[in-house]
Amino acid sequence: MAKRLFDLLASGLGLLLLSPLLLLMAVAIKLDTPGPVFFRQTRVGRHGGEFRIHKFRTMAHREDADEADVSAAAPQLTVGPDPRITRVGSLLRRTKLDELAQLIDVLRGCMSLVGPRPEVPRYVALYPADLRDKVLSVRPGITDIASLAFRDEAALLSRATDPEREYIEVVLPAKLRLSARYVDEASVGADLRLIAATLRVLWTRKPAG
Length: 209
Fold this sequence. Notes:
209 residues; mainly alpha; two-stranded antiparallel sheet; 11 helices
């Protein structure tokens, strides 16, 4: 209850205080390339329920983008420099400002400020049963231990011969272990420390540790 109340207050206040920045980002996206301001994609949330996550759009828009991005047959990773990323999108990704749209999902109750990052159904299907139940027992979050540890995931995967195999066999298991650790140690105090660590990383561009 305390966590949900904190999420409601913080996301509502955040959307209010950041509204000038969010509006500026929306205008920049619309002026840069044709298409919607938001990118929405199906992710798996608490107890396995699916929801549509919000992000500020960072790639050139295609009419079939949602269907392609959630296709069970196609890899769903951004690896290194991607030609689909727009000029404004490159800045938003580098600063993680595209993730601010997820404050909407926190306010809606689909997400929390802190919690395991929500995955697409394709990769959730690969979770070991015991870790799946634990990681999906809480609301997914905008930030957590794993997202800080793998902040440069795209660059890491770009160095792999087979990026998706590297993600499935190396990165995903490591992220799941960190997410399970978060669930075991979750508390309001731990959430505040993770939020502080996330802000420190974003402002200083240095590792959280």
